[in-house]
């Protein structure tokens, strides 16, 4: 199968190239990039005049483990959607389930720190679903520190998961924020030995909880320096809030000292998690300057009125999805903080996409357009288009070349050591994977809102996954399920 994208503006962040070029795709690979590339007989020719052709976006932080979620992300320019912050367990079943159901986008998972701890400390057997993982997050039995024997046991489970193809270790430290810091160092040492990255939702900052065992972002810097592990700080915007200046300074100092610390952010002032999360306890919300009214239940739309109702919901269904407002995007100062996180040198865009739920309990649909009534966080549908709108079109903080560097090239490079197959992603080199996005630079924008979160982004004209069209002429192709697994190969 051959496709020629003719007459477009090609952007290849690996070569620092931004200019007119044709792109020829043959059998799922990029076969040629240049001026006036000849179309072999039988080639499908796409007129890309006025459009940008670049490597598809690689999302390191997506919990949208469904055809429906992947389709929303495809319309947002994503070609590879990976769950690396939370991970899934057992990893072999996670990959098998995705392959059996089919996926529009490439997929992959990290080894789940919370899943391994829950199995050893609480006797909870994971079932490789994100929904059951959400329920576990509110269970206090796995949130304590470990005995030496327990620590050895769950580290062994993580080693087994890495051997089975996990793309690193996902650490939800923010959900067990009082655990002994030595345990986190033990995880970092394991990662360094195995040659894999960690992906961490950090514990509380010292500014919001002076009693925290260690400042969450400083802990990343300490572990990276002491062990040499590659350590990724997830959604620095949501965990830092109004302290992002200090946090980014800490991480920049660590990077200047030679530590392998990377950072991600998303362009929203509200996050999403399970209502039973440790940091949503009323006393912890107060430490952040927030309250119950900052929390909205996803399925019902209920804004929590008071602490009594918050306690009730946390007891009743700790795994229920909710939205937490931590910045007000209508306030110029808060909007500036959000942009600051995105503008941090080498920060990558990652969505933290959430599952799509319907009132009847479904969390997937093969219909397109999606059936009405679906609920999720708008970042599931709009993260990348919103980042492009804010940082390129509106503020000019990024060039288009820089945007593709942060959305495609740098995310792939974080995975190069653990997954050699990632080296063929995030660029337009001959022989690279034909995971491509073709977008209208003047029209690309998000449309999803908190009130209507499943509205697809606009401006992605074509999207190819392994050379197979998933979006054509701005319309999603419901018959396309070309996604393949990206697996880890630890040394």
Automatic annotation (TrEMBL):
It comes from the Bacteria. InterPro entries: Amidohydro_3 (IPR013108), D-aminoacylase_insert_dom_sf (IPR023100), Metal-dep_hydrolase_composite (IPR011059), Metal_Hydrolase (IPR032466), Metallo-dep_Hydrolases_sf (IPR050378). SUPFAM superfamilies: Composite domain of metallo-dependent hydrolases, Metallo-dependent hydrolases. One of its GO terms (molecular function) is hydrolase activity, acting on carbon-nitrogen (but not peptide) bonds, in linear amides. Residues 378-471 form the Amidohydrolase domain. This is D-glutamate deacylase. It comes from Streptomyces naganishii JCM 4654. The lineage of its organism: Bacteria, Bacillati, Actinomycetota, Actinomycetes, Kitasatosporales.
């Amino acid at each position: 199968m051959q496709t020629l994208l003719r007459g477009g503006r090609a952007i290849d962040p690996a070569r620092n190239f931004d200019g007119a070029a044709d792109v020829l795709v043959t059998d799922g690979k990029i076969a040629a990039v240049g001026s006036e590339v000849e179309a072999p007989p039988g080639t499908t020719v796409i007129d890309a005049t006025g459009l940008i052709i670049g490597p598809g976006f690689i999302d390191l932080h997506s919990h949208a483990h469904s055809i429906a979620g992947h389709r929303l992300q495809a319309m947002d320019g994503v070609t590879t959607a990976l769950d690396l912050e939370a991970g899934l367990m057992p990893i072999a079943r996670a990959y098998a389930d995705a392959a059996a159901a089919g996926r529009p986008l490439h997929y992959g998972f990290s080894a789940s720190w919370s899943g391994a701890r829950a199995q050893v400390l609480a006797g909870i057997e994971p079932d490789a679903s994100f929904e059951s993982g959400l329920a576990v997050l509110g269970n206090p039995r796995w949130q304590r520190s470990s005995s030496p024997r327990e620590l050895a046991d769950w580290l062994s489970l993580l080693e087994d998961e890495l051997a089975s193809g996990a793309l690193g270790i996902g650490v939800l430290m923010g959900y067990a924020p009082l655990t002994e810091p030595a345990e986190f160092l033990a995880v970092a040492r394991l990662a360094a030995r195995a040659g894999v990255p960690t992906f961490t939702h950090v514990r509380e900052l010292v500014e919001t909880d002076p009693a925290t065992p260690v400042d969450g972002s400083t802990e990343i810097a300490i572990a990276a320096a002491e062990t040499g592990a590659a350590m990724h700080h997830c959604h620095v915007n949501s965990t830092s809030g109004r302290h992002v200046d200090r946090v980014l300074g800490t991480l920049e100092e660590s990077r200047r000292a030679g530590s392998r610390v990377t950072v991600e952010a998303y362009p929203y002032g509200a996050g999403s998690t399970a209502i039973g999360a440790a940091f949503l306890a009323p006393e912890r919300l107060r430490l952040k300057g927030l309250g119950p009214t900052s929390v909205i239940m996803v399925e019902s739309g209920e804004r929590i009125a008071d602490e009594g109702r918050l306690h009730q919901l946390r007891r009743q269904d700790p795994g229920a999805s909710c939205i937490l407002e931590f910045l007000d995007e209508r306030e110029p100062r808060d909007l500036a903080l959000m942009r600051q996180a995105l503008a941090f040198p080498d920060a990558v865009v990652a969505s933290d996409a959430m599952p799509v739920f319907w009132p009847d309990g479904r969390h997937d649909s093969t219909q397109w357009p999606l059936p009405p009534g679906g609920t999720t966080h708008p970042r599931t549908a709009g993260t990348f288009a919103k980042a492009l709108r804010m940082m390129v079109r509106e503020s000019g903080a990024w060039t288009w070349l820089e945007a593709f560097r942060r959305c495609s090239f740098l995310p792939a490079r974080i995975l190069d050591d653990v997954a050699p197959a990632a080296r063929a992603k995030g660029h337009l080199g001959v022989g690279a994977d034909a995971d491509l996005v073709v977008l209208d630079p003047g029209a690309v924008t998000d449309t999803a809102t908190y009130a209507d979160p499943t509205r697809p982004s606009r401006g992605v004209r074509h999207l190819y996954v392994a050379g197979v069209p998933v979006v054509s002429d701005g319309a999603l192709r419901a018959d396309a399920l070309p996604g393949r697994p990206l697996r880890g190969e630890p040394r």
